[in-house]
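User: Structure with glycine, tokens only please.
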Amino acid sequence: MVDEFQLHGARIAVEAGALADAARAAAMITERAPSHRPIVIADANVAPRYAAPLAAALGADLLSFPPGEGSKVRAQWAALTDELLARQLGRDTVVVAVGGGVCGDLAGFVAATYLRGVPVVQVPTSLVAMIDAAIGGKTGVDTRHGKNLVGAFHQPALVLIDPLALQTLPAEHRRAGMAEAIKHGVIADEPYFHWIAAHGAALLSPDISAEFAHRLVLGSLGVKVDVVAGDERESGRRRILNFGHTIGHAVEHLSGYRLLHGDAVAIGMVVEARLGELAGLTLPGLADEVSALCVALGLPVRVPPEFSDDAIVALTRGDKKAQGQGARYALPARLGEMIPGDGSFAIAIDEARVRAAIAACR
Ligand code: GLY
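Assistant:
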């Protein structure tokens, strides 16, 4: 079964088993993004299983980098860019990013900036990448000031998703990815939230069936594609995708990226839902409902004691949604519906309330 979406020039193809046949995957990539000299980029964990066969089928070189968020930095962007320059790749190259969110963001940023921009194909193999990072054209790196603060919008020519890659994902990454799926339910799809709650064990299993993996990916893509289609550059409604991310990015950064992104987002969603309740904007009970589903799926929901309120609040001021002096939040009204505010979907909240919400989640 193949499902397809079109999004701002990107073709998104979802096909269970697509990566098992590297020659076929390569043909799909070449048809959509023809190139004399494609280059495949993957981290050292993903390279042997998925990227090497694809690179061989494409007749492309494979560049790899150390796994983990620590590679999503300007130094690694420069190293990969230098590798492309050393190979004298021209504007007819295509960057094929195979892997999780770190790879997609990093290799996507290399593509966005190399010779002022060459096409990128995203082949996401983690749940976070399939349902979030690879979709919508955001690329970039982290800095010591925070996450994703340097980057570019660069829509991929093709996103090729094989939901069966979830079977080979380490358990903690399958769990962490579920936080983004829960987010999609909270922000825009109440039935999807309840579907996740009803099938948690099957969705977390390494033996996840092709049917469940496909439905999980499609449920999230339905939300993500719809939101990004209406607001590519995040001037309004796309901000709802940042629910849980203002606090989430802060705790992720404070952990030195030892917390997985999804784990940090789970904590962030519960704090921000509580914040909405404390501000009288969110239907009471939502924070408990989100928290209960996160806990059922093994996600953390408590703010680690070693991160002070001051440190968290200071980082939120540098968040991309901040305006003037204060952080702004994407907050739910109720399950499946976000608060539009003045149309910006970014609500200014007093810092004393933020501290109270954090305290309630210790
Ligand atoms: N990950 C949030 C967005 O794509 O806008």
